[in-house]
Amino acid sequence: MTYIAPQIFREWHPIGIVKSINKQKPFYFNIGNLPMIVWFYNSNPNSMINICKHLGNNLNDGIIKDNCLVSPFHKEKYNQTDNFGSIVESNGLYWWSYKPYQKKPLTLASSNKTYNYHIDIKTDLLTFILNFITINYSYDNKHKYYNNKKQVFIKNKKTRILYRYPYTILINNYRLSILPLNYFKLRIFVTTYNPVIMCFSYLYMIYIKYLFENKIGSSDLKNLFLYLKPFLFVVYLLISPLKIDISIL
């Protein structure tokens, strides 16, 4: 797969929602098949490969003590000099890159409060991008590809889709940022400024997840989704009114 390649380390990847991460202990994530952790010293994030240099054990169960990350097995200590890559905060998310092309990740151009959630989908990056754009494609769309910016732009009367190579899709008032967890699993972070839009985008991403993981006809699924949508929306509002950090694992 082309996305598990050296280039993956030159891009900014969303790794977690700021408000949902416990800074008192290590937070682990994957960049492709590479296991990673973030640990915090004075609220400053430090990123490392999640492999102890002593005997190769995982560090995500380690403790933070005396400005160091301490291995849970043989008490090996790590500090800020052991960093691998950089972490920045933007639009309510933490982003990671090793040697980024850009100084900061692509952000929504506003100073308003952001709402975020993520959803995991069992598919590969190329399949998701191509089929997601296809799902939102209709005959009256106008589309362009900007080679210098590596962007695909699709527009019709109701929807504007901008796909910025390689890991971000902008759709009207919300953004999808994609983290490849391995060859066949993606974590999609959804960011918006409008809590009402967040509710509908949450339901829409359930629809997308179901579509990709069950591989049934899109027309059949659309009818099923339209039938269930009012019920799902009521349930969502009852159990999680305007909830900001939502995970569908």
In short:
The protein is of the alpha+beta class. It has helices spanning 125-135, 195-214, 218-239, and strands at residues 13-17, 27-31, 34-41, 44-49, 63-65, 68-70, 77-78, 86-90, 93-97, 115-121, 142-146, 151-155, 160-164, 168-171, 174-182, 185-192, 247-248.
Q: Considering DSSP H and I runs of 4 or more, what fraction of the residues is helical?
A: 10-25%
Total domain count: 2
> What value does the Rg take, in angstroms?
19 Å
Would you state the CATH class of the largest domain? Alpha Beta
Q: Strand tally, please?
A: 17
What is the CATH architecture descriptor of the largest domain? 2-Layer Sandwich
Q: How much of the sequence is in beta strands?
A: 25-35%
Look up the CATH topology of the largest domain: Alpha-D-Glucose-1,6-Bisphosphate, Chain A, domain 4
Tell me, briefly, the overall form: elongated
Q: From the helix content, strand content and strand pairing, which structural class follows?
A: alpha+beta
Q: Could you tell me the mean pLDDT?
A: 76
Q: Taking strands numbered 1, 2, ... along the chain, how are they ordered across the largest sheet?
A: 11-12-13-14-15-16-10-17
End-to-end CA span: 23 Å
Spans where pLDDT lies below 50 across 5 or more residues: 1-5, 231-249
How many helices? The count is 3
The major beta sheet can be summarized as: 8 strands, mixed
Q: What letter string, H or E per element, gives the SSE order?
A: EEEEEEEEEEHEEEEEEHHE
